[in-house]
Amino acid sequence: MAGALAIAPDLQLKDRDRSAEHSTLIQLATWAGCCTPCVSLDPPDALALEVSRCLRLFGGLGALVDKLRCGAMRLGLDIRLAAAPTPLAARWLARVRPDTFISAAPRWWRCLDHLPVGLLTEGTTVSQATLELLHGIGMRTLGDIARLPRNGLAHRAATSVLQALELARGERPDPRPWHVAPPRFDSRLALPAPVSTTEPLLFASRRLVAELTGWLGAQHAGVDRYELHLEHGDTPESVLHITTGQPGRDEERFVMLLREQLALFKLRAPVEALRLSADTPVIRAGRTPDMFGDVEQARDAASLLLERLRARLGHDAVRGVRPWPEHRPERAWRTAEPGTARTPHPDKQPLRPVWLLVEPRPLASVGSLTLLSGPERIESGWWDGADVRRDYYVARAPRAGRWWIFQRLDPPGGWYVHGYFG
Amino acid sequence: MNAAMPTPLADLPPGLVWRADSFAHVTEKTWPTGYAALDAELPGGGWPGGAITELLADTPGIGSIELLLPMLRRAPVERWIAWVAPPCLPYAPALADAGLALSQLILIDPPQHSALVWATRQATASGACHAVMAWVHKIDMAALRRLQLAAEASATPLFLYRPLAAASQPSPACLRLQLTPEENAIGISILKRRGPASARTLHLPLRKRYPARNPHALDSPDTARPALASLHARRG
Question: Which residues of B touch A298 (CB under 8 A)?
């Protein structure tokens, strides 16, 4: 450190944060639940994943390794991977020979013989003193130790070394507690420097979203709402509520909705940390691909469009319409949630225009109009104070199409346009 | 002798040579309009499946929706029919009567113009819509091009309703129709299509049959008024 400071006197030193390291490990373990249900923490910096039972699901070890690498990259982590029939051997390989993938062949442990003896303290009960003893008698690799007489080793109080080797070779059982994902998702990401624009926030929150989707994948669940908390330091945090149309765990969709919300969001103060939280996961089975067509996919695209439009334009800017049983034309419709309106049975409907003017437009003169149909008397609503008495006609206006006009029968009377035929 | 004979153009494979008096060879999917006379005038025999169609008219109510109804009625269940910034309220009882599935309609009311183009593009690009109908007044060339690309990429027909004045503005739309009101019909002049220019105006009869006029009602509203007034007097 003194040497580094001599070269770069402006170097800023930060203390190592062990609790942050541990929580990062837990984050990665939670995410890795989407690859295998058997994830075990191996502190301080390792995870053991039991994958032999899910290789077939992911299409072999190579595909699974790619998935793990991509996932860790999205979480902003650089990982080293190795595979072996026992967790301890895998950990040793990941430490010194990353990207070694050994499967359970007879006498596979011969591969461990070339590993340096210093690894013995890694993840075992071997003490530093025992290691120095082994160094002292000229041991350089694990193979050297394996060739030593066992009795002599045990006699020199080095039973821990024998145990470690047995664990690594699978001659002694090595049970591990599996990591249990938290029931509620809550993950925090401290930003390296306060941020006052939304673009870096989106980039940083991708990492949290990747973690969220891993957590959901591990539980075969989906969420339909989650919250992004922006921590400002002194002032109270801002919260973005993101709602999806249906429970899901599609990372791209989550990020897309977040982007729309962040684009509209006005930051009150610089953001120092992000926190993503989600309750209420809904169990949602994976989808079986359909041999005939992609109806399900089309339905997904339909709800995605709705979510995207609403995230940007507001919930009420996107709606459906449905008819309502009522005689007064201006009340014979209601807004409806898109996709829910039921089309009534086609019965003998009186003729209605495609376009309705919410406020009828007064007509100065009707002399130039040609009446095509009518009158249709509509008289209703005396009970709620908004009663109408009107005679409706279909009229053709010169060079302007067909109008739905009415004559008000109550004083002050007059003619109005109430709609246009499409 | 035979070898020197020029090959008749008609014998060439379609799409190899385009002759100026025939339609362009259309490879994309088209949607029959439901009007045989109009289909005959359109390349591919229908509305272009992945492109902008511009419908130019100044007033609603001349049959510009009815023109699309046969196509809209064929929407598959899981797809939307998007109406972006319609000029008035699309009236649910009439739409149901016209045979549209109301559950498939989404009405989008963008608060400002930039959001209108954005929403139109999203709806078009999503591939989740059977058809997108958008009412735009002013739109620049760059935005039109983006919409055209979105329509092409997702194979979604996009219908832009624009004012008549837009006819003089160049547009990347592959089909531009000018709509004019006529008595019980709609007049269509094809301003642009993939193929030879069309000089004639089509007259499509509107399907709607109006119920007969009430024989007791009078011919003109002006004469109707005193008659109704006397009716009121009796009631009073």
Answer: 76, 78-79, 128
